[in-house]
Structure formats: structure tokens, C-alpha cells
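Usage

Read records sequentially. Each one opens with the input sequence:
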Amino acid sequence: MSITQLDAKALKEAFISGLLNLKEHKEEVDSLNVFPVPDGDTGTNMVMTMEGGTHAVQDGEQERIDDFLKRFARGVLLGARGNSGVILSQFFKGLSVGADQKETLTVPDFICAFQKGVEKAYESVIKPTEGTMLTVMREGAEAMQRNTAGSFEELFTLLLTEMNRSLINTPELLPVLKEAGVIDSGGAGFVYIFEGMQNALCGNPGASVQTVYDKAGKASSRQIDVSAFDADSELEFGYCTEFILQLQNAKVDIPSFDIAGIISYLESVGNSIVAVKDDDLVKVHVHTFRPGDVLNYCQQFGEYLTLKIENMSLQHNETLIVKEKEEQMAHQDVAIIACVSGIGLERYFKEIGADVIVQGGQTSNPSAEDFVAALKKIDADTVIILPCNSNIVMAAEQAAELAKEADTKQTRIVVVKAKTVAEGYSALSMIDKSQDADIIIRDMEDAIKHVASGLITTAVRDVDYPDLSVKKGDYIGLDREQVYSDSPDRLTAVKGLLEKMPEINEKEVLAVFYGKSVDQDTLDAFKSMLNDSFPWLEYGFIDGGQDVYDFILALE
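and closes with the structure output:
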């Protein structure tokens, strides 16, 4: 039977299927990088962005589609990572606006809402570039408006045919894609999402909605503060225990199974109980000192699909530690947030003026919510955010807008668009926090204009440029816009990069942040090479501890 209307339940299933399809192709989308470097993260960013939306709508079944889309759009907004994630979040924001006052969506309603999504996505980019995800979205919307489809099955067939055509054509619109021999990664991710949605609408979803939150959920990466609960600590608060239990026909009569018995038992061993039965699944949340007893009892009725047990005394103590640290941050005229990744980089950036570090960089872009959390730690009249990565600028700007909406103190938030670690370093190293905020911002922006950025990493594929042939596994030297050198030898690649960097003969100072893979012998050889080939440069080496890039160069 053809689908002519979508309700919240159907759209939720479609979004989940879209996320799962994107997850299956995440590595492929990551690999569609303009430069042959191991920092492709578009697929990862789009997956994490979509996860923010699916988790925001995890609860709630009977609701209007406009309310559902508002919750989904908010979750995607907070989970947005990287430029692709921010653009994607703005598309869903526009989709939500287009569905306002709608209980369900008809085919014409969806076409109008999709167009609003495209418009919002374009608005989020200061200088929209064709040959990107934006083009794929726009041409898909135009195709739907030109044609009449009677059902969502027909509409999605039409939409995906056009978006795939548009995606294949992206290298013809954007020369840098054609030169690298790739299609646009964000566009590819967007198509995979809608292919997954089509699978759900046509009765072939990527996974059962009943188990999707186990598969689509974010893997926990929280680092435990071991000092918060040691050998002498007392378990004051018990364990937060959550699970989804799949009832088993071999153990119970599922249709007649009454959850009241489980609730009665939970009340005898814990509190803060939430227990619901949904067909053949039972979802439980309970605070208890005896999680093992709970699990043993419930297992007589079925087997566990998901399971999470957390020490609430540890959580409580960690919260107190965090609050204590936050309370120690006194009011300032100007405070600075910087985004870097690598223990050495984080430490050094704090030493030279950053008040709060948001961890992130290549392959690990922070979300807007991460920046909002950092902003909450600060009490200052003006907060300056240094993204230190071109793919993080939009998330930082989005966070600034979100924070302003909720800020009763009207803190001024300024994103200084440092697009590399070198630019962030140069901006920080030039400031005097005793000066007026406007002077600090001006000095930062001026410093960024006069620093050249260089990177050394390993090529992940072969690429032929007009004046350079890159081989997979070689070391390559590049800045934000161009690959300058390629060699099997790391220091030869460094030398080739420095020789070709613009205005090298006019620069005087070189700061080198070296990564995890660099040993002392390599550093010694690097210094000898500088002394022999670039004797006019003053240089310094800093242990950045970063992944991906062997060396990050800041040339001033």
C-alpha cells in the first residue's frame, strides 16, 4: 500500500534507518577527502550529528510531527560536529520550520519542508560553494518541485535519483574535487541518510526500531576520575542500573506477561524505578545497591539487549570535583576557549593564555554542545573562542548563538576564526589580557593574518597533481589549501614543504609542534636540517602529543 502521509512514528523510523545506513558507509564517506591525508572525518561528524537527533527523540511515541521534528532538530543542533554536521543540523532545523503546525506530513508538505531545510542550510554558510552537500540538497529539492509524486515511495525514488546525479556531478562544479578524483563527502553522506530513509519507507529498514538505540547509540568515551572513588570510599548512593530485556518465549508467555511482578521486585531492592513493557521488550531504570540481584531476577524472563550500570557515588564525587574547579574560576574581563587535541598542545595552550580547552581537532571535531558546556564554566564579560581548525569554526559559531539565547548576563562571545593550530598559537602568543577586549581581538586577528601554517602527515591514497605525484604511504607536506611535498623520507617532506611555503625567505620564527610518533633522533635531525638549509630561522620545538600530524608548523 502506498504511503501518502507520514506521522512521527514513521519519520522516526526513517531517520533511524538513515542514521544506520550512514553508519555502514561512514568509512567510505570519511575517505572522500580532498587531500590524501588521514584526517577525513565528514562521515564521522555526520553520524555523530544524526545521533544527537535520534537520542533526543528516543522517548515519546504519540506526538504530532511538528513537535517530533522540533525535538529532533534541537538534538541534531546540539550534536553537530564539523562543517558538514552544522550544515546538516541547519537542514533539519529548516525541515522543522517547514513542518510547523502539522500533525502529519503529506507529500506536498514534505516537499515544502525539504525546501525550507535547503534554504536554512544555505543561510548557515557565509559563502556557499556549489559542488558540495548544498548543491545535492538544492537540486534534489528542485527535482521534487518540478514533478508530481502521488506517494512517498515515488517521491523518494525521484529525490534519490536526482541527488545521486547531482553527487556524481560535484567534481564538475568544484575543481578541487576533480583534481583529487573524489565526489563531495558531505553530499555522499546526505544521500546515504536519505537512502536509509527510503529503505524504511519501502519496508526494508536498516534495523529494528526496537533495538536501534543499542546500535545507533554513542559509545561511551567518558574518562573515569579514579581519585573520585578509591579503596577507602563508601558506596553512599548505589548503582544506576538500566537495561532493555528481550522477553523469551522459552521462559514466559509473552502476550500475557505482566510487568507488575518485576516492578514489585524492584521496589523491594531499589528506588527511582521506571519499568515499561513494549510488546516483547521490557525497559528498566532503577537505583539499587544490588544490581547483580536485579539482573539475576529479571534474566528468568528473558535476555539482555542493552545493559548499563554506573556507580552513583563516583558520579556524585566527580560532579563535586568539577563544581569545585568551576567555582574556583574567578570573574575575568576576557576569557579564552581554545580547541586542540593532544596532551602537550592542551597544556601549552593553557600556559600561554587559554582558560578552557575543548578537546578536538582532526578526526575528532567537538559539537556545539561541547562549546556550550565550556562557556558555562566561564565567568567573563567577553569570551573569545579559538576553533584552531577550519572544520570547527561553524560549530563554535553555532554554540555562541545558543549560549547567547540562554545567557541572562549577556556575556559577549566572539569567535576569532583561527583555522589551524598554528593560527591559534599565533593568536594566543601575541595577547596581553590586561588590555581592552577589542584590542585583544584585533591583535589576535592581525596575528592570524601573518602566520603561515604547515602540516606533515602520511598520504592515505595515490593522487596526481599537476606538479606533484603523491604515493600512498609517503610523507606529505601541506598547508590548508595545497599539498607542497611528497617523499618516503619524513624530513625530506618537511624540507620540501618549507622551501615552497609562501614568503619563506621573509619569515623569521618557526614553532614546531611534534606528534606522538616523533622520537628524539628525528628531532635532532630536524634541527640539523634547519641549521643547514634555513639558517635565518629562529626555531623552537614543543611536544604537542597530537595524532594524525607528525609536525604542525607555525611560521612567522
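Summary fields computed downstream for this record:
- DSSP finds 21 helices and 18 strands in the chain.
- The first strand starts at residue 5 and ends at 6.
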